[in-house]
């Protein structure tokens, strides 16, 4: 019954998003006939002011029927469902035949797998990237000290918007990530994945003694506390190299 309801939601989402899923040329022709509207907030002229305003208000009114993700734009939600949950192949590599659920992943594959297309060279270090998004994240994480996202509750600051958004759950009861094996829920995907290892029987064995732990963080604490000499010797060997 639940699968039928989700299938119906996906079909309704696809019907409502037919403009977004249409070929670019057809979509461009239709949009060209519409009257453009001026946004009083940013000064841009847009085709649909109602779709544009949530980018300023950050109102996540479009909920994914499959996962906790919410989006400001209905078209983006449709593409999310098609790519992440339905795994709809929209493009195949002309070189190797591999299928992709988005144009971005297809272009990234061409650059990484076949050396076709533009790469993104960091101007501050030798690293190169196949995707502009990875290049931007690298600049923020490695070459910037600016933390422009500040938590309104505790004042903690973050470099990235994603980290700031995830941090907000610390101050709430929201636990959107459910374990696939039991009723437990978690505030982060990392916590859920770590917990699910306990169901798989995976344990983390200490390389210096016979102790083993269900969680990697507990193993790290054990090594720092019980084997500081061994850790220091490894550090000295690495520095000597």
Concise overview:
Helices cover about 50% and strands about 10% of the residues. The protein has about 240 residues and is mainly alpha-helical.
What would your notes on this structure say?
- Strand 1 and strand 2 form a beta hairpin.
- By secondary structure, the protein is mostly helical.
- Helices cover 48% and strands 12% of the residues.
- The C terminus is likely disordered.
- It has twelve helices and 14 strands.
- Among the domains are: 48 residues, Double Stranded RNA Binding Domain, CATH 3.30.160; 32 residues.
- The strands form seven sheets. Strands 1-2 form a two-stranded antiparallel ribbon. Strands 3-4 form a two-stranded antiparallel ribbon.
Query: Structural class, judged by helices and strands?
Result: mainly alpha
- Could you give the count of β-strands? 14
Helix count from the secondary structure assignment = 12
Q: Helical amount among residues, as a percent range?
A: 40-55%
Q: What is the name of the CATH topology of the domain at 38-85?
A: Double Stranded RNA Binding Domain
Could you state the order of secondary-structure elements as H and E? Answer: HHHEEHHEEHEEHEEHEEHEEHEEHH
CATH level 4 superfamily of the domain at 38-85: Classic Zinc Finger
The largest β sheet comes out as: 2 strands, antiparallel
- Rg, rounded, reads 24 Å
């Amino acid at each position: 019954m639940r699968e039928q309801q989700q299938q119906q939601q996906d079909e309704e989402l696809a019907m409502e998003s037919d403009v977004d899923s249409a070929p670019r040329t057809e979509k461009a022709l239709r949009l060209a006939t519409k009257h453009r509207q001026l946004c009083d907030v940013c000064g841009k002229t847009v085709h649909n002011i109602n779709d544009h305003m949530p980018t300023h208000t950050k109102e996540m009114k479009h909920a994914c029927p499959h996962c906790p993700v919410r989006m400001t734009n209905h078209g983006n939600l449709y593409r999310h469902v098609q790519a992440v949950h339905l795994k709809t192949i929209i493009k195949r590599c002309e070189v190797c035949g591999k299928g992709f659920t988005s144009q971005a992943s297809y272009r990234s594959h061409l650059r990484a797998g076949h050396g076709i297309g533009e790469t993104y060279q960091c101007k501050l270090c030798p690293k190169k990237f196949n995707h502009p998004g990875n290049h931007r994240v690298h600049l923020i994480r490695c070459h910037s000290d600016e933390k422009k996202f500040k938590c309104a509750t505790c004042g903690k600051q973050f470099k990235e918007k994603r980290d700031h958004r995830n941090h907000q759950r610390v101050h709430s009861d929201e636990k959107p990530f459910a374990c696939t094996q039991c009723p437990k829920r978690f505030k982060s995907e990392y916590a859920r994945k770590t917990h699910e290892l306990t169901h798989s029987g995976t344990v983390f064995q200490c390389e210096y003694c016979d102790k083993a732990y269900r969680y990697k963080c507990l193993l790290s604490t054990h090594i720092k506390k019980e084997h500081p000499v061994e850790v220091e010797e490894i550090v000295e060997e690495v520095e000597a190299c």
